[in-house]
Amino acid sequence: MTFGEMKDLIANRLGDTSANTKTRIGEFINDIMFRISDDVQYPGEVRWGQIRTESGRFSYPLDPDVGSIIEPMIVSENNANIWATPVETFNANVQNPTSTGVPHNFMLYGNYGVERQPSSTLTFTAETSAAYLTAEVTATIQGMVDFRNISESLTLATGVAAAGTTTNRFTTIDKISLSAAPTDSIIVKSNGTALKVAYFVATDPGPPEVPGETDAATSAYGLFNPGSKIHIIGTNADASRKITITGYGPLVDGIDVDQDNVYIEEEIEPTASNWVSGKTSENRFTTVESISVDSESIGTFSVRDETVAGRRMATIPPKKRSLDIPIVGFYPIPTGSKINYQYYRTLTPLTIDSSRPAMDQRVHYYIRKWAETAVNSWYGDSSGVSETIQNSIPSWRQDMQAIRDILGLSANPNVVIGGRARNISRKYGSSAMLDPGHYSN
């Protein structure tokens, strides 16, 4: 039964088919659908997802509608399984992940408002054109790249201004140190030349000689994280839509950083007739917590860091106001394998009349039944969903048990069968079947 059919049936029986009433009926249908899902602990429909890994990349976004993963993930070309490992366990055993190959473990790092955080390479420049570096110096950069701690060594060139640029794009920086005091002052910039993240004063030969700086964290200027502006492009996007970005970033004066890791909220409004030409944030962000649209849009918003040619951070599809994307890390670090996984899909509110509740067809009857009961209560005495259920507890419990039977969820999901057993959890299937691979000794 579709969303539109449910609304029409309830409205016709109610004797009020006005647009406002149908809108309110739609709200009751969604409220009841989610209440049923919570009460019966419905895991969601099973779907397949796929990740095309990149050589050397540690973390990846899952499909946005992933509720829970059905272990194991698989690497079909290598006939390998990938099992979940708690982040705490992984961090306790692998502080510096460097091994590459076929992954055997995945770690869920949580849900984020973007697929990837802003990042930037670091550029080292000798400041004085008359001198430049006259002696070789090696810079060591430690920081975070896509949830992975990275250390990179960079030999700075002598006799030229452009001393060197890192290979990695860093999200945050923990340390920058030099193997020796530089013979010329060194500026370290991110995001092209837009932000000065570190500055090393050269050795002053004197007399008396004053040693130069070798550790950015203890230098006079300090050490700061990169910060990217956020560039948003709309495809057929409504001109009236506003976008709000929340996150943390630097407060800047020109290219100099005054303060780091400051909470920032910025609202971007279109200044042209639409979003197609793209809009760029005024502030710079090191990490982005969320990017949200003020109301549903008929278009798609593409979010990139810094410029239209920057790295894609997220895509907000039509009818979505924000994203909630699960991020996983793989170890050993993949080298280009294709990873397939099954998952339980999260329920999403019904917004289109042709949509159907993502449950067994037999459950649609119960959704419509209780939505109609709630609508009648609201229409008669302004009661809500909670009051309606509270006044019909025996009937509600009976129907919830019937739904559990229909969906195969009758077993207690917290039962544990001894030895090396795992919980009879929804992530192992939608029925109460016991798989010997999960509970036998």
Structure description:
- The chain is of the alpha+beta class and 441 residues long.
- It has four domains: 3-43 and 348-410, no CATH class; 46-113 and 325-345, no CATH class; 122-218, no CATH class; 230-316, no CATH class.
- Helices cover 20% and strands 32% of the residues.
- It contains seven helices and 21 strands.
- The protein has helices at 3-14, 19-40, 87-93, 361-381, 385-390, 393-407, 436-439; strands at residues 46-52, 59-61, 66-75, 80-84, 105-112, 122-126, 137-145, 148-156, 162-165, 172-178, 186-190, 195-200, 230-235, 243-253, 256-268, 279-280, 287-293, 300-305, 312-316, 325-331, 338-345.
- It has a seven-stranded mixed sheet with strand order 1-21-3-4-5-20-2, with no helix packed on it.
- A hairpin with a 4-residue loop joins strand 11 and strand 12 (195-200).
- It is elongated.
- Mean pLDDT is 86; it is low at 413-441.
